[in-house]
Design goal:
Blueprint: E1 17-22, H1 25-33, E2 42-44, E3 55-56, H2 58-61, H3 71-77, E4 82-84, H4 88-105, E5 109-113, E6 116-120, H5 131-146, E7 150-155, H6 158-165, E8 173-175, H7 181-185, H8 198-206, H9 212-216, H10 220-227, H11 229-237, E9 254-266, H12 271-285, E10 291-292, E11 295-302, E12 307-312, H13 321-332, E13 342-351, E14 354-355, H14 356-367
Parallel strand pairs: 2-4, 7-8
Antiparallel strand pairs: 1-6, 1-7, 2-3, 5-6, 9-13, 10-14, 11-12, 11-13
Helix pairs in contact: 4-5, 10-11, 12-13
Length: 370
Amino acid sequence: MAASRRAAPMTTPLRKILHVDMDAFYASVEQRDDPTLRGRPVVVAWRGPRSVVCAASYEARVFGVRSAMPAVRAERLCPDAVFVPPDFGRYKQASRQVREIFARHTDLVEPLSLDEAYLDVTTTKTGLPSATATAEAIRAEIREATALTASAGVAPNKFLAKIASDWRKPDGQFVIRPEQVERFLTPLPVGRLPGVGKVTEARLMKLGIATVGDLRERRLAELEQCFGRWGRRLFELARGIDDHPVEPERPSLQVSAEDTLEHDVPLDALAPHIERMAQKAWTYYEREHGRVARTVVLKLKTSDFRILTRSLTPRAVPTSADALVRIALALRERVALPATTRYRLVGVGLGGLVDRDLHHAQSGLFDDVA
């Protein structure tokens, strides 16, 4: 039936959504703070066989260097790259400045990471005449406050806004108006749709579906038969339908720190690494003012990539980094793998974060029990 090819009616009012994405964020902060790095290929990563690239400047991207790439491969691709170890404290400070700017314009902000966020600007605090004007103002304020650049996508929904923000990077802006959605999507490769990775893209290609326009020609029943429930999502994305609202940031449920070790080590050699991660996790925990953690978690990954977690909810929550270290080290004793097992990753976390008042109230309930 021809009707099955048509989009279902929108179930939510038309929104004005921004996706704001900082340009090569970590690398740009490094270039901003060290003038000798400007114009040079910068790779934010620790050196070593196990390190991965956290960020690459646009000068490094010309050589094919990308985030999440092994650092050794990045070095082969760009031998002249300047490797800079990440400094997340400075990146978080810049991110806080950017989020303060977002908050001047709308309360509906959904951070995705330190360097990108969705904003619903259907209604704004500033009274600017359009979403386009709001995006322009935000980008200008970011540049003035941080000396960094951001790109923005403006669209009727989240997934289109995210695609649009990448359209004119760096330091650019792209608008997809409601009446332009079908024309914009039709020629795009299906791999540009959110959630369509290499495996799904290959399956679509086998069906003769190379572009979003090709996908739009397929019936809902056919897509559901091939992809199950994901078939309906593909059907909707091909028509520019995405009803997911911008969800403001919720309080974190846990804080943690983890590290991939330079060499695999046995369990009895993990103590200094556990202590280091516990100290780091405690530093993050101290920033959660007014909140209390109820559970301590030890995370280990073996040399064959098996992930283990051990947790404990003590009667008294840890009140110092030393107390956290002691609990984390004790959790190591609950790992019962053979002594020959080697470990490549260590992590320590504090979970079950709740407001301090709620924690005291819950503790009081048990105190009253005879």
